[in-house]
Amino acid sequence: MRDVFLKFEDHADALTVIEAAGVTVPAEDGEIRLGYRDTGLPTGMLALKPVGAVCDGLVYAPTGETVTDGDGVEYPEMAAVAGYHVNLRVAEGATLPAELAAHVVAPEPATPAERFA
């Protein structure tokens, strides 16, 4: 198996493209929202998850600035990276649907914000 890192304009774009690739996203409480899935996916797709603890698709990166907390500890300031980020695990040898191929992050991040366990 291998992990594929995808980036979309926003949640709506991700939802449109992912559904076009054959993933059905059910409505919950009247809202259609991407979340972690490892069942009901097209052949070859093993797991799909928007990045972030609450599946908000947000990735953060250092701004180059340093901030200091109330205890005087300095740490890098972080800011959201543009886009909506989704991780996809696919079976070894599986072909990535053409709809998703255009959204693969390239080059693959050396230190992804999040990986499957």
TrEMBL record:
It comes from the Bacteria. This is Uncharacterized protein.
